[in-house]
Amino acid sequence: MSTLDIRAALQAVLERESTALYVSTCGYITRDLHNLADRANHLYLVGSMGMAAPIGLGVALGQPNRRVVVLDGDGSFAMNLGCLPMIAEHRPDLVHVVLDNGAHESTGGQRTAGLGDPAAFARAAGYAAAYTVDGVREIAELDLRDTPALVHVRCRPRSHPAGRRVALTPQELLARFRAELATTPA
């Protein structure tokens, strides 16, 4: 079992991919990301479980000169495994991070169904690279030149309360993200 805190994993990803566009799944992961670093290049999906990967793919296809980081939880990832081959087929500059703590924490902490090996799923679907890590140093040292890439991050169950909720409405979040997209040529 990993001892890595989800917030530490998110911070390591943010430091590594500071200029990327982010699409974050709903729930506590979005709240953690928002509280760590609320930025215009972050699209928080509020109430859209399982949709971070397909929306991230759309963003990556629309912004081929920018890296896109998708932040998924293990439960959210399991809801949309059919998206993996589609992502692989299009070969976007996309890093798909699956933060796996074995629980649906945003809905009460229920245990998630066993995922098996998310990195193996990604490789079988055709991702260029896939890794499983359980430490901050491992995240920093990953070779993510070949994309799409999946990074399965094994984390411990949450031991801290969720941070404050995202105050912007989904419409405001989308407008802010679109304005960010307009600042960089596609």
Structural notes for this entry:
- Residues 44-136 form the Thiamine pyrophosphate enzyme TPP-binding domain.
- It comes from Lentzea kristufekii.
- InterPro entries: THDP-binding (IPR029061), TPP-bd_CS (IPR000399), TPP_dependent_decarboxylase (IPR051818), TPP_enzyme_TPP-bd (IPR011766).
- This is Thiamine pyrophosphate-dependent enzyme.
- By secondary structure, the chain is α/β, with parallel strands linked by helices.
- The chain has a single domain, classed as Thiamin diphosphate (ThDP)-binding fold, Pyr/PP domains (Rossmann fold).
- The chain is 38% helix and 19% strand.
- The protein has eight helices and eight strands.
- The chain has helices spanning 6-16, 28-36, 52-62, 74-78, 83-90, 118-125, 136-141, 170-182, and strands at 21-24, 42-44, 68-73, 94-100, 103-104, 110-111, 129-133, 149-154.
- The strands form two sheets. Strands 2-1-3-4-8-7 form a six-stranded parallel sheet, sandwiched between helices.
- Strand 1, helix 2 and strand 2 (42-44) form a beta-alpha-beta unit.
- Helix 1 (6-16) packs across helix 2 and helix 3 (52-62) runs parallel beside helix 5 (83-90).
- The longest helix has 13 residues, at 170-182.
- 40% of the residues are buried.
**CATH fold category name:** Rossmann fold
Reading the helices and strands in chain order gives HEHEHEHHEEEHEHEH
Into which percent range does the helicity of residues fall? 25-40%
- β-strand number: 8
Task: Give me the Rg, rounded.
Answer: 15 Å
Structural class: alpha/beta
The biggest beta sheet, please?
A: 6 strands, parallel
Report the span from N to C terminus.
41 Å
Tell me what portion of residues adopts beta-strand conformation.
15-25%
Number of contiguous helices = 8
What form results from the Cα inertia axes? globular
CATH domain class: Alpha Beta
Which architecture name does CATH use? 3-Layer(aba) Sandwich
Find the CATH superfamily.
Thiamin diphosphate (ThDP)-binding fold, Pyr/PP domains
Please give the domain count.
1
> What is the averaged pLDDT score?
89
Q: Within the largest sheet, what's the order of strands?
A: 2-1-3-4-8-7
Stretches with pLDDT under 50, minimum 5 residues: none
